[in-house]
Amino acid sequence: MTESTGAEGVGGESSALDDPDYRQAVVDLLAAIAYGEISAFERLAEDAKLAPSLEDKLAIAAMAGNELGHVGLLRDRMTELGADPYAAMAPFQQAVDLFHEHTAPSDWYEGLVKAYVGDGLAADFYREIAAYLDPRTREVVLASLSDAGHSEFVVDRVKAAIAEDHRLGGRLALWGRRLMGEALTQAQRVAADRDALSALLAGGVDRPALDLAAIGRMFARITELHAERMARLGLDS
After folding, report:
1. Which among 44, 52, 136, 141 counts the fewest CB atoms within 10 Å?
2. Which domain covers residue 228, as residue numbers?
3. 53 exposed, middle or buried (CB, 10 Å; 0-12, 13-18, 19+)?
C-alpha cells in the first residue's frame, strides 16, 4: 500500500505538468527507468551466453526482449513531454553502469538471482514513486515494470540447483544481500544527482511532502518485498 494517490488526487495530469519542476522530475524518472531497461537488456543478452541449455538460453533471451520492449513506452512518453529521450537518459548512464560493474555475476546462478532480485528491487522502488505521478505517467511507468511472467523460470532453476547443492544456497543468499545494498546505493546516487527527482520524493506539485517516517515505511516495504522474493528462491535474506 502506497502513501498517497499522487498528483491525480488534487489537480490531475494537467495541473501537475504545468509545473516545470514536476515535468523535469517526470522526465528524469522516465529516463532513469528507460536506461535501466536498456542496460538490463544488454546484461541479460550477455548472461544468455552462460546458459547451460538451449531452453535456458531462450528463457533468458525472452526476459531480455521484454526489457527492451518497454523502452518504447518510456521513450514515447518523454517525447510527449517535449524532451529528447536520449539526452534525458545520458545523466543516468554512469550510475546504472557502475551498479552493473559492481554486481557482475561470476556464474549462471548469480546471473539468475540478479535478474530476479536486482531487477525486482528496482521495479519495487519505481512502483513506490509511481504513486506520486500524474495518471498518464503512472500508467506508463507501471506498464514498463511488468515482466509478463518471464522471470518465473528463475525460481524453478535456482531452487532445483540449491536442492542439488545446499552450499550454493549460502553463496547465493550472500549475493542477494549484496545486490540489495548496491541497489539502494544506486537509488540514492541517482536521486542525489538530480534535484528535480529528489524534489519528487521530498514533496512536489499537488501532493504533500513525504516525511521521514513515510520514507522509512516506503523502504521497509521494499525490504519486505525483497525478503519475499529471496524466500521464493529458497534463500535467506
Report:
1. 52
2. 12-232
3. exposed
